[in-house]
Amino acid sequence: MIPSTAEAWNLVSEFVQSPTLRRHLVAVEIAMRAYADRFNEDPELWGVVGLLHDFDYDKYPEVSSGGHPLAGNAILEQRGIDAIIRDAILAHAPEVTGRRPSTLLEKTLVAVDELTGFIIAVILVHPDRKISSVELKSIKKKWKEKAFAAPVDREHIAKAALELGVPLDEHIEFVLRALQYDAKRLGLA
Fold first, then answer.
1. CB-based contacts of 112-115 (< 8 A; 24+ apart in sequence)
2. Residue 134 in contact with residue 119, Cβ under 8 Å?
3. How many Å apart are CA 185 and CA 79, to the nearest integer?
4. CB under 8 Å to 151, separation ≥6 — which residues?
5. Hey, is 1 helix, strand or coil?
6. Can you tell me the mean pLDDT for 130-140?
7. pTM score, two decimals?
8. Domain extent listing, the chain
9. Which of the listed CATH numbers 3.90.1690, 1.10.3210, 1.10.10, 1.20.1070 matches domain 5-186?
10. CB 179 within 8 A of CB 27
């Protein structure tokens, strides 16, 4: 079964209490939908993948053989969620699952996951904390500051953009514009 966005959100609501994680899931959903449109893919499917990719992280935060994303995969499988969704989620954590991203859907999830978090971090330190005020140059400036959002693997994001065939600056700008378009859902308008 491929759940609707509403059904996926119900699952998120059941498992995710953290407002920060909820915002992240919505941000990845938005970016995935935008890329689905760009690549002439199914925005509903891609959005659901974005919304569900970390739904288990609040309850199973340890990225390990028993935690995220394997715990979530088991839950999704029990609930009859289609393998295309489960596989994409597993592929976004190959260091745990051994599954490397191979499809366009999987590669896109990897490309937008950390980037959305980085962009939101830039927004939250911006003087007015509004996404409409943030430009590519603001993100690129923070990108160069290794101490800023230090856990974000910039090289990983750049490699993932390359895998999509999208130059890094274009990728960052594309995701930023998608998030700006849906700023109210993120609480960053």
1. 112/28, 112/31, 112/32, 112/35, 112/50, 112/175, 113/28, 113/53, 114/152, 114/153, 114/156, 114/157, 115/31, 115/157, 115/171, 115/172, 115/175
2. yes
3. 27
4. none
5. coil
6. 93
7. 0.94
8. 5-186
9. 1.10.3210
10. yes
